[in-house]
Each structure stands twice: as structure tokens, then as C-alpha cells.
Here is the input.
Amino acid sequence: MNLSNHTLTNIQRFFVYLFLAVLVVITLIPVWLLIVNATRSTLEIQQGISLLPSKYLMTNYRILLSKGLDLPLGFMNSLTIAVLTTVITVYFSMLTAYGLVVYNFKGRKTLYNLMLVLVMIPMQLSIIGFYQWMSKLGLTDSYASLILPGIASAGSVFFAKQYLESIMIQDLIDAGRIDGASELSIFHKIMLPIAVPGMFTLGIFAFVASWNNFFNAFILITTRNKYTLPMLIQTLRGDVYRHEYGAIYLGLAASVVPIIIIYFLFSRYIVNGISMGAVKE
Amino acid sequence: MFKKLKYDHYGYLFVAPFIIGFLIFGLYPVLNTVFLSFTNRTLMSRTYDITWFKNFQLLFADKTFITAVTNTWELWLMNFIPQMGIAFLLSVLFTNLRLKIKGVGVWRMIFYMPNLMMASAIAALFFSLFSYYGPVNQFIVRSGFVAEAIDFIRKPAWMRGLVVFIQWWMWFGQTTILLMAAMTAIPVSLYEAALVDGAGSLQMFWHITLPLIKPVMIYILVTSLVGGMQMFDIPYLLTDGRGSPGNSILTNTINMYMKFHSSKGHIGAASAVGLVVFLMTSIVALLIFFLLREKHDEPVKNGNREMKR
Here is the structure.
């Protein structure tokens, strides 16, 4: 009886691992094909699927540039926007969350509920009103319209609030006040240094979201040399690249690989961070 | 020692940037969208008239709009249900004390990875993988599965399936992580008490696990719905950016973008699309959240009571 139970568990275990292995293949194969094809020549790609990299990475890169696709520029544009958005989002989300956690001011509950509701509202659908308002302010075709909304990111404030509540030590704040520090400098000099791990997680999410954002940039940016990576990808579908598969895959890989590297470096922060954003009450 | 009241007004200083930012980049754009939806404004002319509900009348008479709304719901549901299913299965397997699956952290890490990929790059990738002369066709023809290459890009059923697959592929890992976090947060003592009372594993799942992970399930449902109703990158870049073939993957946001990007730039009409979908999504999301949330305490209490008996 005992033995058969044990055997049954082992058989079940075998099928579970098999199932997991199949899921891993499904998960990884599209990305792997993308990376491998970036190193293969168009001829090789047309000859068939291969899971092994080839040696045409530089050739593909030259083809891409020769067709007028400025990949390095797009890369720098995306990087600039993502870094600035990250800094702004992290700083202001921490600031707001600190205000919500530490001070019991009138309207605090209302503001908190507003955040809750904002997470459940499809703000992107007001993009037309946003676009027209930005053009009135002269901010269309400017990165400011992509970066500044990071000041008011409800989801990030939520995360920051959850995090701050878990690490908050009232005594440190009181000690700072005894030393005569101002409220803002208590936040900057005492709270922020303690909150670095949480800020880091928040920052990774903000960075990835900004890096991958296609829609807003697509609506707001018009000048060619301000294009971000996802916008350049969109142009890859054009006739110019019709038969340059290797170059197309390289363009796609260039936008995906940096994120993969970030993920493998910081996956612990990321995986732990996901569940922290979920609404807890 | 310190009277809290003395400091509480500093709170306003800390939240002021958020509020100002929200008014400028959040609230005003919404109000502006509402206003624009009552006008016939285009990008090409400076003058415009207030036409009140004309945009909405045209919209509801427009078959394309209805198609887009139905498509968006269908595409979302078709990916959400299997996504939730697989995530449930995975988190039950990963937290099962009898099976003791090894390397849970690594599996989870791999399954989550697609979520961070650039959706537009993934869509473009699948576009070339499934193009007529693409790798998928080469593979199935050469290995003899089919006699002739399939024109995936022109087959509505294939393209819808592909959109659903990509969405599922990108999100099941995240849903698994969230469900698992909720399941592992349940105190083991609850299950032990139930065991003492002679509860079976199905009973425990139904009366302990489900009620306690309900808040997280609501969170997943609501955020997925809100994201799904704004679906754009994948269907836009998978085919020609107009929801082809035959409007089969035309979503609300593509529809809105097409009006915005039409030769005249009908931002009035585009705003109307945005507003209707905005209201529809917000109402459904908030209803789900508040209706399900208020009930959620009761089953837990009932469950406890049953266990005590």
C-alpha cells in the first residue's frame, strides 16, 4: 500500500515535469528563434529553421544601416526616455507614498481610494484628449509628453506604499525630528536610503514599461530621428525590408535582448516584486 | 512625545506633485476627450462645431465599431480563460506538498519572461514566423504535415488564434506568480485544523484556498480586463494595422487609432470611440471589483464556521 502510493506519486511527478518541460519549450522557442535568426543570413533563414546561431550578425547589421534604419539612434532615444521616466516615476511615487503612509492628513483616504480606482481605469483610452492637450502646450513630438506623466503613476504609488509600510520605522522619523531635520530631508536622508531595494524593483518595472511602450510614442512622436525602438520596429514591416529577413530579426532582437539581460540579472527582484503590486487589504 | 497632528499637514506637500501631475496628465486629458467627443473637430481645420451626440449616433450605427467591441471582448476572454486555467494548474502543482516539485523558482522565472518582451517586437516576430514563405510554413511543408503552405496571414481564424496565443504566452507566467503568492500566504494552521476535522483536499480547496485567494483573483481579473480592452500593439503589428484579415483582429484601440490617423484626423470621432470604451471598461471593472469584494469576507467566515462545527 505504502509502496504503491509512493509509485503513484512518482508517476504523477514524471508527468508534471514533462508538462513543465513542454511549457518551457513553448515559452522559450519564439525568443530563441528570434535571437538565432538575427545571426543568420537571409538565404539561410529561407532555407529552413535552425536552432543554432550562424555568423552573419555583422552582415545583417550593415544591411539594416544601409537601408536607413538608424538602430543605434533608436536605441539611445529609447534609453534616454526609459531612464528619465524611471527616475521620475520612482522618485515621485516614493514621495507620494511616503506622504500617504506617514501623515494622517485630511483627504488621505480619498486620495488612496483614487489610486485604487485609477488602477482599474483604462487611462490609455484618453490618448486623443491627451494628444490634443499636449499639442496645445507645444509638447507633441517632445519626449516630455512621454516622461512627465510618470509623476502621477497610480500603480507605482500603490507598490511604493505597500513597500514603505513593510519597512517603516516611526522611531527613525522621530529621531530625525529631534535632530531638527526638516520633513523633506527626513524623507531624503533617512527614508530613501532604507528603501533602496524597493525603489530598485519599482525602477525595473518602470524601465521595462517605458522601454516597451509603443502606443504613446507612436501617437505623440512624429520626427523620424526621435523615433523609439518599437517605432523603428514598426517601420521594419515596410517594403524596403521585404526580403531582408536577417536584418529584420536583428532589429527585433536588438529591442528584446537588453530586457532579457536585465531580467536574468535581476529576476529575483522582479519575480518578488510582481505580487507586491497586487491589491492587498 | 511628538504630537502627530503637528506634522500631519506636511502630507499635502508630499502628495502635491502627484495631484498636480494627475490633474495635468490624467484628469484633464480625460475631460478633454469627453469634450472632443461632442465636436466634429479634425486635425486639419482650426474651426469646429459642437455636434453633441452625433459622433455617438454614428458610432453605434457603425458596424465596424460593433465588430471592434465584440472582437476585443472575444480576444480577451479567449486568452484570459486558458491563462487563468494554466496558472491555476501550475500554482496548485507548485504548492503541492506531496509532489514537492523541484526548482519552482526557475520554472516561474522562465514562464514569466515573455511578459517583459516588447509586445510590438513579438508581434513582428510572429508576423515573419507565420508569413507565407516563413519558417513555420517551411517546417510543416518539408516535414510533410501539409501538402501546400498555408497563407496564415490571410486566414481570420489563424490570426485570431495567434493574437490569443501571444497574449496567453505573455501573461500566464505573471498570473501564476500572483496566484502562487496568494496561495502560499495562507497560514498552514488553517489546513491543519481542517485536517483534524476530517476535511478532504477538495473540501479544503473549496472552503479555504478559494475564498482566501479571491482578492488576488479579482485583482488579476480586473487588471487583465483593463489591459485587454486597450489591446493594440499585437493585433496592430501582426497584420496590416487595420485588423485584417476581414476585420478579424480589429480591436477598439486600433479602431480609435484609425479614426485619429485618417486623412483628415477625425479626433472628435476618435475621442468618441475612446470614451465609449473607457466608460464600458471602467464600469465593468469597478462593478467586478466592488461587487465581488464586499462579498468576499462572508465565505471565509462561513468556511471557518463550518470547520468549527
About this structure: Chain A touches chain B through 90 residues (CB under 8 Å). The mean pLDDT of chain A is 91.
